[in-house]
Amino acid sequence: MPVPLQITFRDFDSSDAVKARVEEEAEKLGRYYPRIVSVRVVLEQPHKHKAKGNTFHVGIYIEVPGEDIKVTRHPGTSAAHEDIYVCIRDAFDEARRRLADHKQRQRGDVKHHEGQPHARILSMFPDHGFIRAGDGREFYFHRHAVINGEFEKLEVGAEVRFAETMGEQGPQASTVTPVGKQNHAPLEPPPDTTIATSRP
Q1: Which H or E run contains 100?
Q2: Are 73 and 87 in contact (CB under 8 A)?
Q3: Is this structure's pTM higher than 0.70?
Q4: Cα–chain center distance at 80
Q5: Same CATH topology for 5-107 and 115-178?
Q6: Domain 5-107, architecture per CATH
Q7: Which of 13, 17, 125, 187 has an alpha carbon within 20 to 30 A of 135's alpha carbon?
């Protein structure tokens, strides 16, 4: 059953191609979480600076049983926000992470941290980071995946527990939980391993 979808364009002309991309991403959300009640997407181009290029905002408002999920993507330092399709992709990636968190809360998974694998923070960026699990695998995580909003308190080498999920670009951490007083152990990359510095 198609997800009830409302698309709003603000400060720039509507586009059939952009609308089709939003519809495609919303359909993926519906397949991932069939209990979605409705999705509203707001596409904005609030500032037009010829020197800096045109940047876009994308807001996604998802109604699910027991919760309303809000995702907003604002211009950052990257020129990627000058591409509406990249901004849509990033916003819907975040929406999937938020839906994954919602599903886990429904199942009570987040309360059972003892069963989650341990990892250490490998690298940190303004809105995301990477962790390395005990088996050597590396996982991307977004700032909203960190429990209790403690993203800013995380440091490289800190020990965390995490829940693994499958994202658009492969496995990632859907929830990241700091382990008590942070135990900062040095992180040495294994031989022939390249440390991830940014998400593609």
Answers
A1: helix 84-107
A2: yes
A3: no
A4: 16
A5: no
A6: 2-Layer Sandwich (3.30)
A7: 125
CA distances from 69 to 25, 55, 147 (A): 16, 24, 16
- Which of 2.40.50.140, 3.90.230.10, 1.20.1260.10, 4.10.520.10 is the CATH number of 115-178? 2.40.50.140
Domain boundaries, the chain: 5-107, 115-178
pLDDT, one tens digit per residue, over 65-122 is: 777 888 886 655 444 467 889 889 989 998 998 888 888 776 654 444 445 688 999 9
AA identity, residue 37: V
Q: Using alpha carbons only, give the angle 146, 148, 153 rounded to the nearest 5 degrees.
A: 65
Q: How far apart are CA 54 and CA 46, in angstroms?
A: 9
Tokens read off for 49: 């600076």
- Going by C-alpha positions, the residue among 10, 4, 7 that lies closest to residue 45 is 10
